Amino acid sequence: MSYALAILFGYLLGSIPFGVILARLGGLGDLRKIGSGNIGATNVLRTGNKGLAALTLLLDALKGTAAVLIAGNWGADLALIAGLGAFLGHIFPVWLGFRGGKGVATYLGVLAPVFWPAAIAFAVAWLLVAAVTRFSSLAALVATIVAPLTLFWMGRIDGAVLFALMTIVIFFKHSQNIGRLMNGTESRIGSKG
């Protein structure tokens, strides 16, 4: 498997819009016209359907994990490339005019099989920040800083570089959230806005 095939495989897997599919199957309509319009689990949660939100979170993470594990059969480098493809596929899915989610669950799904201690650090950081502030966006931003720092600290330089690049994309996708956090108008976890 070549690098091009690995990233294409990951991209196609990552581009499956589980939030949109599950919202439609659950009778919630077009998720892109609800709440923030985002296709991820946080916006599904805004519909009030916690079960569908949890399932969206799980499936968005698992598509990243699956890309890494499957491509890993052909080499560690290809696993990382496929994981990057899944992450980019979730954020820029061809099926939705390249308007996807913010990539946090898929980021974690890619991270877990690459280096599970960094995934645990990510999860702990996310949970602590979310519990204290009730801002999903802030929790995601902090967690995506913690992950590459953990990889770097543990000597996984290749992974640290990849996840640092993915963190930059996460910050870019959260630019509106950052603005709302700064001016005090960001929605908290569980709010419908």
Write the layout of secondary structure elements.
Blueprint: H1 3-14, H2 18-25, H3 41-46, H4 50-71, H5 76-91, H6 104-114, H7 116-133, H8 136-153, H9 157-173, H10 175-183
What is the helix fraction of residues, given as a range? over 70%
Beta-strand portion reads: under 5%
- Estimated radius of gyration: 16 Å
Q: Tell me about the largest β-sheet.
A: none
Describe the overall structure.
The chain is mainly alpha-helical. Helices cover 71% and strands 0% of the residues. The chain has one domain. The protein has helices spanning 3-14, 18-25, 41-46, 50-71, 76-91, 104-114, 116-133, 136-153, 157-173, 175-183.
Summarize the model shown.
With 193 residues, the chain is mostly helical.
Observed structural traits:
single chain, 193 residues, mainly alpha, 0% strand
